[in-house]
Every structure is written in C-alpha cells, then in structure tokens.
Amino acid sequence: MAKKDKHKKKMKKSTKIVLISITAVLVFVLVFGSVGLYKLYSDTLGGIKKDTISKDEVNKSIDQDVKDKYDDSIINIALLGVDRRANDTGRSDATMFVTIDKKHNKLKLTSIMRDSYVSIDGHGMDKLNHAFAFGKGELSIKTMNQNFGLNIKDYVVVDFGELANIIDAIGGVDINVKQSEFTETNKYIQDVAGELHKTASSLSAPGMQHLNGIQAVGYCRIRYNDNDFARTDRQRDVLVAMFNKMKSTSPTELPGVIKKISPYLETTIGATDLLSLGTGVLKSGIGNIQQQIFPIEGLDNCKGGLIKGTFYFTYDKDALKKRIQNYIFEDAAAK
C-alpha cells in the first residue's frame, strides 16, 4: 500500500502547478479577444510560435459518431505543458484540454492524468504523456481523441517552467495563506528561488497577501503538510486569482502582458482564430472556468498500480470514455 501511495503522489513539482500556468495563458487569450484593438493584439501575438500539423490525420482520429452527433458549438483544444528548464521537451508533463461550450454557455478545463494507460497509435499501450515523446502535439491530440472520444483539432503548448515569470507578468496574485500552510510555503519559496538563482522574500505572517511569482509557485508546491485535496484547493486558489487578475487588467495594459507571456507558447491556432475564439466566448457571457480531472479514482474501475514495474492508472475504457463524453458534450455531472 505504501508503495502504491508513493507512486500516486509522485509528480514533478512543475506538474503540480501546470494547471495554473496553462489557465493563465488560456485566460489572456480569451480576455483580450473582447477588446476592439484587433491590429494591436494581432501584432502582439507575433511572439507565439505557430506549429503545423496534418489536419487530415487529426480528423481521422475523431470517432465518426462524435462527428455525426456533435457540432462545432462545443470546441475542445488540447493544452500541453512542457518544462524546458530541465531541457526535457520529449514528454508533456501534463495533458489537458479546454472546452469552449457555446451550447451550454460554459468554459471547462479538464486534466487527464499523465499516467493513464492508453493506446498510442503505432506504439501500443503506454502512458498518455508518452504520446508527446513519440509524435509531439499531433500524436497527443490523436491519442486523446481515440481513447476518450473527443474532437480535438488544435493544441497549445506552454513552457510552464517559467511560471514565476508568467505570474509576475500579470502583476502577482492575492492569496490567503493559512496558518497551517505558512511554514511550508516559506520553505518552498526559498527552494524555488534557489532553482531560479534568485533571491526571494519569505512571508512575514499568514493571512491574505499579495504574492509575486516565486512566492506563488512556492505556495503551489506545498506537498507534505496535509493531503491531495488541500493541494488541489491551493492550485485552484492561485488559478482563480490569476483568472480574476487577467479579467481586471485594462485593455491598454494587456498588450504588454501578452508580449511577456507569448514567448512561452506555441500553437496550431492562428492569431485570427485566437482572437475570434476570445471574442465569441466573452460575447457569450461565460465568466468562470469549470475544472475536472479524469480518470476519477473509485469510478469506472479506475486504480493505480504497477504493470511490469511501471506505474499506470488503469480503468474501464468504455465506461470512462462515456463519462468524459457525457461531461464534455452533454454537460452531465462528472460523477
């Protein structure tokens, strides 16, 4: 049991905060799409690297029944986190997708566990994040579509090794640091500062305070003083703080923020389409991000365990596929 728990908790520090950094990127794309300074923002997006994939191959990976049953009112875009600080771009440290649901007027951010045991085209059964190692973003999209019944056609890759810089670019975040989190937060603040070869100020007391990038990353990395649920709550606290900060940024300040964040991105989506997506979402009045993680332990026979010495999350493939499709396309409860 102890060995199983150890594998369940094993996760790179950067992975534990990738949800936040990816969401920050998503938010700025959606927010600036609402303003009329099209030429200004279009120029600012020039720092984002444009990737090219085979649209025909990706389209083939989408189930025909998905094409027949669901239209473009529900758009799914893959979000892949890569930590380039470690010079390890061979695998995605996290695999997520954002759902722009114009049918039910919702915005969803869904994470799929990177240790999920999936079928990867041409490579047999393996971990989900290995798809990126075998075929970069294109194979990641195909693997998600084929295993989970999705209709993903594009992706965004984020260099979340620079999360502290991203948070600093938006001006920091306001977080309520609890007494039980205070000591560990300061410990991790100094750890992050050391990794970045910078100095950082520790927090003087618990409570509501404004955190800079290094401090916020330290807060997100707390691991041992409570449980998985509390760690998830902290990630969500920072995510919501970043979301609110981006929404409150004035149109005149946004170009500068976007310019700072853009070098950490690459995507298959053109600037025009990004702007169009942002405009459409904001016109619909969607204001909050709904979050979910799959597979869900305890449901669909999901469990973590070793297969030939390697840890995976296994599950009932058909049951999980149906659950994800119902949640994404029908807006049903995840559990």
Automatic annotation (TrEMBL):
InterPro entries: LytR/CpsA/Psr_CW_biosynth, LytR_CpsA_psr. Residues 91-248 form the Cell envelope-related transcriptional attenuator domain. Belongs to the LytR/CpsA/Psr (LCP) family. This is LytR family transcriptional regulator. The lineage of its organism: Bacteria, Bacillati, Bacillota, Clostridia, Eubacteriales.
